[in-house]
Structures are given as C-alpha cells and as structure tokens.
Amino acid sequence: MHAQDLLARRFETHRGHLRAVAYRMLGSVSEADDAVQEAWLRLARHDTEDVTNLVGWLTTVVSRICLDMLRTRATRREAPLDLLAELGNADFDSDPEHEAVLIDSVGRALLVVLDTLGPDERVAFVLHDLFALPFDQIAPILGRTTATTKKLASRARHRVQGETTATATELAEQRHVVEAFLTAARGGDLTALLAVLAPDVVRVADPAALPAGLSAVVRGATTVAKETVLLQRRSRVATLALVNGSVGILVAPRGALLLAITVTVRGDRVAGYQVIADPARLRELDLAVLPQ
Does this model's pTM top 0.85? Predict the structure, then answer.
C-alpha cells in the first residue's frame, strides 16, 4: 500500500478525537471539521519520520489551528439578535442530528460558558480539564510559560464553575423547580405548567425575545402558562445553568447563546422569570455550569 494511503488510514483512526478537541474549542461543527481537515493537509505535507506520537502531534496541530481561529474571530459566531431573526422567532427546532450529538456530549451550558472565555483561556481549559493534557505540553501551543498556562486554566475553571451565595440545599431546591418548569414547557403540558407556576407569577421579556403581538410583561399563571406553550419550540434547545448565581435557563440553538432566563423561585413554585435577549445585557450576565 502507498505510504500516503497508510498515513491517511492512521489519520482516520484519530479523526474522532481531533474533532472532539476542535469542537470543544470552537463550538462549531463546520469550523471543527475545517480545523481537522487543515490538520490532515499539514500532516500530508510533513515528514512523519520524526513523529513518534502521531495523536499527540495531531492534537498539538489542531489546537494551534483552533487557537488561531479563535484569536482572529472579530465577533462571536452569531450575534444573538441576528440568530433570532434567522430562526424567525418561532423556528426553534432541535439541532441537526449530527450536531445535536456533539452538543449533548459537551452540554449546551458548557458551550455557552466556553464562548465567554478568551482564546488562550479556552484552549488551556479544554486541553487540560477536558482532555487531561499536561500543562507543560499546552504551554508551547499557547506560546506561554507553564506557570502562566496553569493560571489561564485556573481562571477559566473559575468562570465555568461560577459563584453563588446559595447553599447546596437552596440550589437543589431551585433546580428541582426550574427543571420541572422546563420539562413542562418542552412537553407543552399546560397542566404541569400551572402546577409549577405561582398564581401571581410575572413574566418580563425584552421585546426582541418575543414574537409580534406579545406583551413585554405578562401576569398570572394561566396567561403565562398559555404563552409558554405557545413558545414551546424554544425549550427544545434550552438547558439549565447558573445565571447570576441562581438556577436559570439558557436558550442556545446550535450551542450559541440566544436568550437567557433568570428565574425567581418562591417555595416550590416559579414566582417570576425574565427573558433577556439584548446582546449588551447578555454580556453582563454571570453564566456558569450547574454543579453536578
């Protein structure tokens, strides 16, 4: 067999790993595939006689490609309001199957939080915390010292984990209520929604988050529940997360933050929630992954 064919076969055995690394760094299926393809092109042009650890070499190459892509991004993948317009305010179908599998394996909340990190922080965190690469191997990829790389990963880890003044018990209680609300919303279950909403619940939303004709402020369990059912499709791409230190909801089609929902829990009911769509307000939120 031709040497290039053998090399291609060896590369294919590592494609899944490389795609996983690239996707966690970039948060985009198409960009991850581009990065992996570029890694193959570089491998094909490289004299492999000095490569003793092919998967390690490829991981380094893909990481550098992703880092360059992250550093050259002028803006996020899609501005929230642009994405909202693209989805037509109502078209919140589930992600395409191949992308949904990747999103589920990473978690929508983690993808959103990773998108708030700087390029170097993101690469350091992904390679060390998600793929257990030693810091002394990550440092040359970033062009940093090992000590600085550790600090970058630590700072990223702090952002991912977030902060909250709530106790573990309080968080668990919030999670139970908000999860019940989201489950009912996904199922379009009006009865379950009425059971989890307080009678005097208030929903406030940025106008950009709403289809034409819906009020920015809605009061009362029945009205709020009916509207939630009307917007059921959004819940299919929603996930729980820490939002400003409390359990909230992120709506993130294709892993890109579109809406954030802060929820006020009173007892075992949702007393109110606010839907945030304005990009400036979204950037001000403290978002983190819920502790397991």
Answer: yes
